[in-house]
Design a protein that fits this description.
Distance between the termini: 78 Å
Structural class: alpha+beta
Largest sheet: 5 strands, mixed
Strand content: 15-25%
Helix content: 55-70%
Number of helices: 7
Low-confidence stretches: 1-13
Strand order of the largest sheet: 2-4-5-7-6
């Protein structure tokens, strides 16, 4: 009778069969959990690669119209002002070389970024001539602070495109970079009026995305209009 009950009642399975069943269940659960974690890691890796690809594209982005305009401006100088044309070619070469360098780097110093910005503005000044005026002010020795590539450049390009370019008599662009207490403050001002406060342009939208993905802390980017000047300001916590 006991032998029959053992053979037909699952509650009375031999001890070794119970152990085997438990072990099989545990092995299945462990394999299932391992597969789930592996799938999650693969998904995270894909997401990280997607973000990395987006960052690479964003940090090397430069308005293609700028390149065409620069080449046309330099071409116009070749006959009458060959020295200025040569200088323009050198600056354009510097910009293109730096774009290639930026594509392989996540961070650059403020000093490196400002060298890029100066070349950009000098080339734009060939096109705008006296319609474009600019100045820069660095406060608190921020030169060696690391920032994502094209952070300052995107603000400056936006100021030229949406500010100076839309004014009949041109205007001024002012760059103020300050290390203040535990913050790096980058502000670019341009003459003009902000037409739509929520319309920051592609350049500023990309800057917001890049800053969000580059820092594990809150970074402020604000756009405001006061006294016929537009201000784009970034406030980055350093601590």
């Amino acid at each position: 009778f006991l032998q029959w009950r053992t053979e037909h009642d699952p509650l009375l399975l031999p001890e070794n069969m119970v152990v085997s069943l438990v072990l099989s269940t545990l092995i299945y659960l462990m394999a299932y959990i391992a597969d789930a974690f592996a799938a999650k890691r693969r998904h995270r890796a894909l997401e990280q690669e997607k973000v990395a690809a987006e960052l690479r594209a964003l940090r090397t982005q430069l308005n293609p119209h700028f390149l065409f305009n620069s080449l046309n401006s330099i071409r116009a100088l070749i006959s009458d002002q060959p020295i200025e044309a040569k200088t323009g070619i050198t600056k354009l070469s510097n910009i293109l070389r730096n774009i290639l360098i930026y594509s392989r780097r996540d961070w650059v110093s403020v000093s490196e970024e400002m060298a890029f910005v100066r070349d950009y503005l000098d080339l734009e000044k060939i096109r705008f001539e006296e319609r474009l005026r600019y100045k820069e002010t660095l406060i608190g020795n921020p030169e060696q602070i690391q920032i994502p590539p094209m952070t300052i450049q995107s603000l400056v390009e936006n100021a030229v495109k949406h500010g100076v370019n839309n004014l009949k008599n041109g205007g001024a662009v002012e760059i103020i970079i300050e290390k203040k207490e535990n913050f790096l403050i980058i502000e670019v001002l341009n003459d003009g009026t902000l037409q739509h406060k929520t319309d920051t342009g592609v350049g500023l939208a990309n800057t917001k995305l890049r800053l969000k993905q580059s820092y594990n802390k809150e970074v402020e980017l604000t756009l405001s209009n006061e006294n016929n000047r537009v201000s784009a300001k970034i406030k980055i916590p350093l601590a």
